[in-house]
Amino acid sequence: MDNLIKICGLSTPETLDVALGAGADMVGFVRFPKSPRHVSLDLGHKLSLQARGRAQRVVLLVNPGDEDVAQAIEALNPDLIQLHGSESPERVAEIRTMVKRPVMKALGIAEASDLQALQPYAGGVDRILLDAKPPRRAGALPGGNGIAFDWRLLNGLDRKVSFMLSGGLDPDNVAEAIRLTKPQAVDVSSGVESGPGLKDPARIEAFIRAARTAFAAAHH
Ligand SMILES: O=C(O)c1ccccc1N[C@@H]1O[C@H](COP(=O)(O)O)[C@@H](O)[C@H]1O
């Protein structure tokens, strides 16, 4: 039984403290310069120290080179690496071997056939993250867009697969998402913000409360 709640894209000590105080199991730091949630290595280092021993620290990378991976490990010392680009199964395995710590691969879902993309990664990663596919417009972020996919598509998922659900979750819909898809974990970024990159303390607390209650109900 996992029932993990991840708050992603934290970039200030104050909002990180709110997430930790509200009981987040995982906190995510984005290393992707085009994102409004990007943290420098220096800030990431400080935030990671603040979270040490209180929650699992996740570093989010997008199609990183070896040097990007090494710098993130050195500065943030994460408990888990989230790969949120178009990394192949071979590249994911290479990074996992390099970092010698758990890796979570994000996959975009828009239609039933997208679930087939899971198979080549199964066995080679520690966790799968299912997110909506990014919008097709130029310059769109590969994630963190606040877009949900049709959760009913997961009716066709092999239930042996343990996954984290993300994409457009917020305090109002996370309970329904957990009830319908029965994920092992949930992840949110823009749904707990008041504007791009601006985490909202009340929304973080409301999300964690709603997710915790829904996970508890799912086991009755
Ligand atoms: O949060 C970002 O800025 C980000 C940038 C690049 C790739 C992924 C990103 N975030 C991840 O996207 C999903 C969905 O986010 P949202 O809740 O829909 O905003 C989530 O897993 C974030 O970790």
UniProtKB/TrEMBL annotation:
Keywords, ordered alphabetically: Amino-acid biosynthesis, Aromatic amino acid biosynthesis, Isomerase, Tryptophan biosynthesis
Residue ranges of domain N-(5'phosphoribosyl) anthranilate isomerase (PRAI) in the record: 5-209
Tagged with keyword Chaperone: no
Pathway(s) per entry: Amino-acid biosynthesis; L-tryptophan biosynthesis; L-tryptophan from chorismate: step 3/5
NCBIfam families: PRK01222.1-1
Alphabetical list of PANTHER family matching this protein: N-(5'-PHOSPHORIBOSYL)ANTHRANILATE ISOMERASE
Protein family (similarity comment): Belongs to the TrpF family.
Protein name: N-(5'-phosphoribosyl)anthranilate isomerase
Gene it is expressed from: trpF
